[in-house]
Amino acid sequence: MKKILFVATVENHILYFHIPFIKYFQNKGYEVHVATKLGNMQNELKGISVICHNIDFSRSPYSLNNFKALKQLVNIMKRNKYLLVHVHTPVGAFLGRLAAKLTNTKPVIYTAHGFHFYKGGPLKNWIIYYTMEKIAAHWTDGIITINKEDFEYAKKFKIRVKNGVYIVHGVGVDIKKYYINNIKLRKDYRKRYLSATDNDVIIICIGEINKNKNQMQLIKSIQRILKEKNNVYALIIGDGSERKNLQKYIKDNELEKNIKILGFRSDIPELLNASDIIGLFSYREGLGKCLMEGMAAGLPIIATDTKGARELVNDGYNGFLVPVYDIDKTVDTIKKLADDKELRTKMGSEGRKIIQDYSIDKVLKEMDEIYSLYLNKTY
């Protein structure tokens, strides 16, 4: 049986970004394996006939658990003759490439979903993550990037295959899936979760709840706006290490009526249909699949001015870029969109035009060309 291995630090990364690519290989007759830290969603992977390997990854590059994870990866690669290893996420990608080197497993390709080092980023990120990437590049046959800044950095690394650095349109989005435009469903969702009417404005923010995603910028901006008007709401979708802290802040400041955290959800298209604006307030972002989903749904964007958002947002055209943690600017931008339905509609329409280049069909074609290059090589 021909076997392919995907490696990522956490299972939700595989589930959220890579199911179409797993199915791509399965449809070609490959047996797909996944090496990740399995959790309460592992049955979803097993449900699509993926062979799962539980790896004791830690997201922290400092954790001693990663020595155990490396040993587990080495054992998996020794037991299985993989025709291709595709690694993701900084720690998972570093250890996956090191294990491949130790077991002479080739080829290995790496998708950088947003380097943790970036212009203006913290010095410690450059010391740790840039060094990790520079070292691991020597064990890599191909690097795939999803934004221009990362592409330029990746071209400077010394990898095993000449001209083996690529840029693609992210992980792709199923455009038809996210555009519902169902008025009755919209009203039902708005009433169910926020008691909001059609005259109210809902900003939806989708993603893991952690410090990097910086949902607090949205919460504090809504808090400020509510001192002037009470028709602006926020839906925060996701789970993570900062959820309890955000919930406590919301409760302590009596914001429960206007801000709801709904946790992990599988009905993202319906929630987007019920919303008016898509927001993303990360300190660092590779490309932002949630922004692509929002654009497909016809929503205008408010996002922090990061390398990933700049790829998708033409400022003032299909949305607005705001500085990281600039509450004043964020408040002004939310109010501008909240007060102008015509502007929201116009920007949402422009976003739907832009997102056509990021469709999953187009990205699968891009990836097919890359995968074919490596699967057809002799190592």
From TrEMBL:
Keyword tRNA-binding: no
Molecular functions (GO terms): glycosyltransferase activity
Residue ranges of every copy of the Glycosyl transferase family domain listed in the record: 197-353
Keywords on record: Transferase
Pfam families cross-referenced by the UniProt entry: Glyco_trans_4_2, Glycos_transf_1
Residue ranges of domain Glycosyltransferase subfamily 4-like N-terminal in the record: 3-146
Keyword Transit peptide: no
PANTHER family, per the entry: GLYCOSYLTRANSFERASE
Name assigned to this protein: Glycosyl transferase family 1
Organism, scientific name: Thermoanaerobacterium thermosaccharolyticum (Clostridium thermosaccharolyticum)
